[in-house]
Design brief:
By secondary structure, the chain is α/β, with parallel strands linked by helices. The protein has one domain: Rossmann fold. An 8-stranded mixed β-sheet has the order 1-2-4-3-5-6-7-8, sandwiched between helices. The chain is globular, with a radius of gyration of 22 Å. The termini are far apart.
């Protein structure tokens, strides 16, 4: 009797010890899902940019949102696929996409699972097959922060489909050596960015073509590449979001215009 009662408590202790790691893993999964389902943004102004107007037609498609000149997608022969930053609602980039579309280009913002481009790095595949943009012959791809890293990887893996790359506060990693690629590239950063890993960004320059354009927006920060409000760890911007967006769109436009000039 004494032996039996001694075994049962021991078994219970082992069961409890085994259950603790499982419980911690379950809590971690729940915490991650909650975090992923509550991304930053969008602001009211970003949501307003999702409405069609005289210059741009906006539509929600299976993989995200499509912006085309109001005259119709048939007027756009070049386009940009855009990957959002990590933990940022894709709609937060609507003002940027709209401004690029106003220049006559098609722009598709890819909606990512749990707002993480790393979970769907090939999201551009869906855009390239959309009948709504069948007239687009030249495609560039871009992204903000983590989205830019994934965009660079996609460009490296699809040289026949992608001719341009726009990196916003981002860089190519070791999985995307584009140094010899015939790409039109713009790398845009803000001087007040408190989130971008500057040493990693500097080291990654060797992975881009020597002709890549580097644009530093004086007074710009990390969050103002989108429209989602302040971001933890970032520094305050000393220029307006509108001014930072204007310079970003200008750099994007130069990449896309070079695509149109390509033979």
């Amino acid at each position: 009797m004494t032996e039996a009662t001694g075994v049962k408590p021991a078994r219970r202790r082992w069961w409890l010890l085994a259950a603790i790691p499982a419980g911690l893993i379950a809590l971690a999964i729940v915490a991650f899902l909650v975090w992923g389902l509550t991304p930053l943004g969008p602001t009211d102004s970003a949501l307003a940019a999702l409405e069609s107007g005289d210059d741009v037609t906006v539509s929600e498609v299976s993989g995200g949102w499509l912006f085309v000149p109001a005259a119709g997608s048939a007027e756009a022969t070049s386009g940009l696929i855009f990957y959002p930053g990590g933990h940022v609602d894709a709609r937060s980039y609507a003002p940027y996409a709209r401004a690029v579309a106003e220049r006559g280009y098609a722009v598709a913002i890819a909606k990512m699972p749990l707002s993480l481009a790393v979970l769907n790095p090939n999201a551009a595949d869906d855009v390239l097959s959309m009948p709504e943009v069948a007239s687009v012959r030249q495609w560039g791809i871009g992204g903000h922060s983590l989205g830019g890293v994934m965009a660079a990887r996609y460009a490296a893996a699809h040289p026949q489909q992608i001719g341009g790359l726009v990196l916003l506060a981002s860089y190519a990693d070791s999985s995307a050596d584009l140094s010899a690629a015939p790409l039109s590239v713009a790398s845009v950063t803000g001087s007040n960015d408190g989130v971008l890993n500057r040493s990693a960004w500097e080291a990654a320059k060797v992975l881009l073509p020597t002709e890549a354009e580097y644009v530093s927006i004086v007074g710009g920060n990390h969050a103002q590449f989108g429209d989602y409000g302040p971001q933890p760890g970032d520094n305050p911007a000393t220029i307006s979001a509108e001014e930072q967006r204007t310079q970003t769109v200008q750099a994007t436009g130069r990449v896309l215009s070079r695509l149109e000039e390509a033979p």
